[in-house]
């Protein structure tokens, strides 16, 4: 079983937090950020999206049903202000926030369709700050923006000559099964400050305050990035029913690029235990490589069913 440890924090610590949406920085790393600041270290937040595709809270707070492009932009600006205020409560100067303005609910498409430009931007952000520690979303997070953000970061980090320690934080979904994780409690004062930072995300507290407070009140958790299924052999953790095969796609992302193809077009073998194994020669990669299984159907359900694995 993989174990996770949080590196010792000091004045030399340079923590880069990669947040897909405004509020992830506070929910997932509000205590860690304060601990790094208290140790005299530096913090930078890379905010991938402004959280503008967030229609239900927007409908509720703005009392409007139709949400158009202009409305979404306005909502994104509002959430950008909220994240600045939250960071202020955590003691992080606003100059430490680097917003990239990528499309909310669009990180997977961005990784797939604009791979090079996306990895170049993340690489530039990482190189400019030279972190000693990166906090990034967990690969197994069920929100598609979070899983895609993990893969983007890992591919950007893999381009570097020197390795950087990183911690993977889960926000959506259950991550306890069979995993050893690091848990950061923080002091009572740090936990209180984190909760006060959370209140600055008023757009998110409006409909989900209870869930948000519940997430923020638990200790911060960092999981083994690969989950329990690391193999390095192309073995896939899923056994989708045959009846679904014509409708499935497998997306593979690695240093050589991203390829999204129908399930049946990938070269695979099936083991005696029923598991599928991808022929890794089809992936041609020297570095971290990830796969995502998904149904090629439009669905109102945004969360991943199968999600990602490390190949
Ligand atoms: Zn998020």
What is the topology?
Elements: E1 14-19, H1 24-38, E2 42-49, H2 55-62, H3 69-89, E3 97-102, H4 107-113, H5 115-129, E4 133-137, H6 144-158, E5 165-169, E6 182-184, H7 188-199, H8 202-217, E7 220-222, E8 248-254, E9 257-262, E10 268-270, E11 276-278, E12 290-295, E13 307-310
Parallel strand pairs: 1-2, 1-4, 2-3, 4-5
Antiparallel strand pairs: 6-7, 8-9, 8-12, 10-11, 12-13
Bound molecules: zinc ion (ZN).
Zinc ion binds next to loops.
Short précis:
This protein is an alpha/beta fold and about 300 residues long.
Protein described:
By secondary structure, the protein is of the alpha/beta class. The protein has two domains: 214 residues, LmbE-like (Rossmann fold, 3-Layer(aba) Sandwich), CATH 3.40.50; 81 residues, no CATH class. Helix content is 35%, strand content 21%. It contains eight helices and 13 strands. The strands form four sheets. The chain has a five-stranded parallel β-sheet with strand order 3-2-1-4-5, with helices on both faces. The chain has a four-stranded antiparallel β-sheet with strand order 9-8-12-13, with helices on one face. Helix 2 crosses helix 8, helix 3 runs antiparallel to helix 7 and helix 4 packs across helix 5. The longest helix has 21 residues. The protein is globular. The site of zinc ion has 6 residues, from loops.
